[in-house]
Amino acid sequence: xxxxxxxxxxxxxxxxxxxxxxxxxxxxxxxxxxxxxxxxxxxxxxxxxxxxxxxxxxxxxxxxxxxxxxx
Length: 71
Fold this sequence. Notes:
Blueprint: H1 13-17, E1 22-23, E2 30-31, E3 39-43, E4 46-50, H2 52-57, H3 59-63
């Protein structure tokens, strides 16, 4: 069975430098770059980021795949 392999993605440095800083969708904390400890969730087709504090406080709801509007 032939399967296509995924090609590595190369980011455009100019596109990443001009991007708006990330903000937590729950508390509004701003971050420089993309912190590895933040959580990313896709809700209704929209990518939402949550800081470590908000992710820790709501980890059960996140693991249960509840939309953030529920917590």
